[in-house]
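User: My collaborator and I are trying to settle a disagreement about how two of our proteins should look. Neither of us wants to argue from intuition anymore, so we agreed to look at predicted structures for both before our next call. Could you fold the first one, then the second, and keep them clearly separated?

Assistant: That sounds like a sensible way to settle it. I'll keep them separate. The first protein:
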Amino acid sequence: MRQVRTHFRLCALSIFALTSCLDSGPRAPSEYPEARRVDHIDEYFGTSVPDPYRWMEDLESEEVATWVTAQNDLARPFLGEIPGRGRIKDRLTELWDYARFGIPWKEGGRYFFTQNDGLRDQDLVYVAESLDAAPRVLLDPNRFSEDATIALAGMSASPDGRYLAYATSDGGTDWKTWRVREIAIGEDLPDEVADTKFTTPSWLPNGQGFFYSRYPAGPDGRGDGQAQVRIFFHNVGTDQESDELVYAVEDSKVRNPEGTVSEDGRYLLIGLYEARVENAFYYRDLGAPSGEVVRLLDDWDATYAFIGNDGPLFFFHTSKGASRNRVVQIDIREPEPASWKEIIPEREETLESATFVGGYFVGRYLKDARAQVRIFDGQGALVREVELPGIGSVSGFGGHSDDPETFYSFQSYTVPSTVYRYDLATGESAVFREPRVDFDSGEYQTVQEFFTSKDGTRVPLFITHRRGLELSGDNPTLLYGYGGFNASETPYFSISRLVWLEMGGVFASASLRGGGEYGEEWHLSGTKTRKQNVFDDFIAAAEYLIDAEYTSPQRLAIQGISNGGLLVGATITQRPDLFGAALPAVGVLDMLRYHTASLNARIWSADYGLSENEEEFRALHAYSPYHNVTEGACYPPSLVRTADRDDRVVPWHSFKFGAALQHAQGCDNPVLVRVETRAGHGAGKPTWMRIEEVADEWAFLNWALDF
């Protein structure tokens, strides 16, 4: 055990947690579990790089398991002893107990939607014969396992409304197994389709079967995550072993194909993906005897998303010739770019996505990370803009080309996701399902401000707080960010954030470079050798909150998940003085070896680059959190969170980083490593587990920020 100084915390009185000088909570650990350091050195382009915790990458070893158990034995009692944690958990439970609804979709005349009446660990799936008919439960994932850790991980209904293909994930893994349920009787067929990740079945119109992507079997007989997927066709009622191989990539080792059947059932669209920077699209005429696959878009020069087709006229959402995206029509009989027809041109706002429903194109836009929706006719002429309730985010607007209606949801930081039915002909929105939460949103407000980053770039920042907040420089503040993979950070609802606000906290969310808020240029400016821009943006956001007297370094915490965990790790190693606490979760933290975990991880190189390339190695090594922990530095109190079954961002990232922080910590601020069991990267977690997780985090911040 390594000795550290004991932390004596000043007494504080929190009106939420009701702590007192007689019960000021746990002391920081006086020692951490032993983590063996080895003399492993890697050589990169003449640079020697130590990796003292390389042994932690063996997730099956007894030594790693012992270390994980010891970390949990340290972290869980510490968190459990924080005064106010019980009250925080109780309030989370109270607020989480509300009815919430998914966006309906329609197939074969039937409506499908998800619903949770409160504290159920998993949402139920309902089906109704019409909007006015009484719905019935089609699928109850709460029955998959006693502890609700086997979750529903995907669904796809056949166009004739006869079957529902649904996937399960065991303990949070990305690996999914698909089954087929006959909707009329609510019973499963014998079908079982395994060895899949990141795929959704695409049905033939008659419900005969579906196309899907799966991994080939590895030496152990299970799907090999280091290999490429291939597209297969599954006939309903048959064994997976008899599934037909439809397409396999022959000219690349890293590109993965995914099949989508066009609405008219004539074409199989084959999207090929290597990253989120560019992709390709092929197609196969399902009625042609030859079965030839035609390479329609194969220059790998932009992003393309298939919207729909009118016979041989294909519609795509694309960044080709438009950093903020546009919609084009491609006649597959004359597919040369010179013959493309622009349907919806690029605008100042970013076109996030587009659908074709009821004869209209629906464009979802972002203006400074705030949602806008525009309706266009079939020729691309603007019909109207959808009026939204305020600053927030929008999802939905799916459906078929002949549907008279579509559904969407709107949410904000303080307003839960409300589902609307939208009449495409009249443009009228009507509330379909509206959640009721025991929270007075009128007491709080969200403002959008802008700050200037290190290089002069203007970056948006959403700030939510109680009305009448005094800018005293002493408010406990949580700054959240992501900044990667073209993912936009927009206002969304979270029960956990409501409790943070009720505790007296300020919540701030920065729309950093690396995201998609301002199109592909914004994304690329935060990738590879320019990834440091993302961390500079986050640091500038923190400095803005301090300079504007929202908070102070002692009262400022930062939080990020996955790529956001990288963001937090890099930021505290670069500016440990700027923060009072840090919550890096399931983070990518060893940037020199992230790509060795799986083929899926290697695909992230479009954003990160690879240590195999000298220029990219220099950039990665300069900010990699694990490699930039400095012995003797004083890092803020940190709760490093991961899960034992995370096979997307493998947990050894957090193990190595947490061990390095504990070893290097030069002051008495605690570094805790919390490892969830029977959980993965985050999707499908049961409600009870999510409540426990957030209660730990908010209690830790309540203790660390001393409020």
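The second protein, kept apart from the first:
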Amino acid sequence: MLNLVFAITVALALNGGLVSQSHAEDAQKSSHIPLEAFAQLKTASGMQLSPDGTHLAFFVVHEGRQVIIIQPLQGKTAGVIPTGEGAEISWFRWINKTRLAVSYAYTSKRYLTTTRETRLYGFDLDGKNMINLIRPRNKQTIGTRLGTEKVPAQIQDKVVDWLPEDPDHILLSLDSDLDGNSEVRLIDVGSGHFSEVIRGNDGIQNYGTDQQNEIRLAWGYDRNSFQNRYKSSAKGYWRSISDTPWGGKGIDIVGFSPDPKIAYVSGYNERGRKAIFQINLETDEVLDPIFSHDQVDYDHIVKHPVTGKPVGVQYTIDQPKIIYFDDKLTRIQATVDHALPKTINRVVGLHEGKKLYLIHAMSDVEPGVYYLLDMKSKELQFIAETMPGITPKEMAPIQVVSYKNRIGVPIPGYLTLPKGRDTKNLPAIVLVHGGPHARDTQMFDYMVQFLANRGYAVLQSNFRGSEGFGKAFENAGRQQWGGRMQDDVTDSAQWLIAQGIADPKRICIAGASYGGYAAAMGLIKTPELFRCGISISAVLNMAGLIAHDRKYIGGTVWTKSMGLNGVDPDEVSPYHRADEITKPLLIIHAEDDHRVRYRQAEKMAKKMKKQKKDVTLVTLKDGDHHMDTEAARIDMLAAMEKFLAKHLKGAK
């Protein structure tokens, strides 16, 4: 079983309950904020209101790792749920008014392949009565490391439906017999006892329910393709979306309306932007869109924080916005936005009977604050800030910018300039996002703010291949590693120089994951443009990543979008072109990275040192791919600060 560390004493500054005050924003400007303030994990984060509206559960940080605190709205801490030994808490959720589900994650290996393992436990609100919610199928042993009597399921926390009308049970999918096909279990949250609702289907690892809690969706990968199926009604038969009149148009079911025969589907509008439509599953009639935008795609369906049912749509132009289907939530959102006009606000918990609403607020300079709105008393009460030591007035505002790439395509981006300093001829960082099919936004980013605080201009671009800007824009980056995507990043640096913002002799290219790949490729393709590069959790051996990913279910499908079309992977692989790197490169990588193996960083550094290149390898003992421990973030930012001070601050 997973070893949990219970010897914890946590001091939480909530003053024994809610306090009526505003978030402190009047601190004086500091020219040099301690590195640890930016590196800290968010505390009092992930906050959730209990179903009966009496308790809060949230993350705090203890010894650099997240634990969960359960606390009454009025009173002292009720319980503590600790982190695991060698594992991190990845998420938690209230199951009912007295019980929480907690997912633990850690890096392991199966058949010499790095994996991310998850385990799901149940706790009472006092932090006790811990049980493993996943029991063995037949006589199979459920463990937390390989080498037990039987090999356990790798992913054990895929909850299909929280069943709010049945607070003693949840629906969960699990591949317990390791055949690549998941069954669905109805699990008793007090004991872990279960019955099987679905035994398993070929090529299916995921399931979804309608608003009546009936299983209506199934999707996953077989060996060579993606499978996507649905039921037209609760008693209907399974049908492949590709076999429908509308399935060939790129439409996928993303949820259900209150009417079980009407599905919410994702498709493209006439401008090629991803929109939300409705389809009558019994007649195959495509109905009018319920959300469509000319500029951007929708991000995702917004679900009710208690029932989990679809209640709105989020989209992002520069900052996220929500359009609710629910009239009550629309009115609440308007009330909160009127009271907090400087932040992006979201209802993350509620109790309609008590008219209590838990609000999370953040912005480009605000990492996060929680408030409780009491509609009966008409009071908005401050609860907690998520990053103590980070004061909005000390942060650098993020500017929305746009530049045209070499073929005239407008590329959206964000520019952050050091606060209170000259905005011309600055040392600059071109910071490339990961994914690559992700995007940057105009919201708080601890690395961006750290770099700006240290005196660097930071430019983030949503290069072709970034998501959110339509089908054509995203597809333009498909199989363009080292190609169009790299060209757009190069053009962003040229734009910084043309605007007079960046000193052309003091520009560094940096990024994590795909962004770390782009940083290394930038030194290879345009050494005259960048003085140095920083690769964090980076893909450095393209062929190695493709070979590694093909070991996973679905890997033969998603790896088809990697690399450069028509080009051997080695030709766009930093490792295989290391001899072309002539500028200093900083490589930062965690040993337990499950997404990109540490050996990629280790072999790259070894090869460059053998070639007598200027390379620095910083090895992090933990933190995984996303630097999810405080120690990893501190070491990462410290290494970046030292490296940049050496190669940019002193360069002329």
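Some points you might bring to the call about the second protein. The first strand starts at residue 45 and ends at 49. The mean pLDDT is 89.
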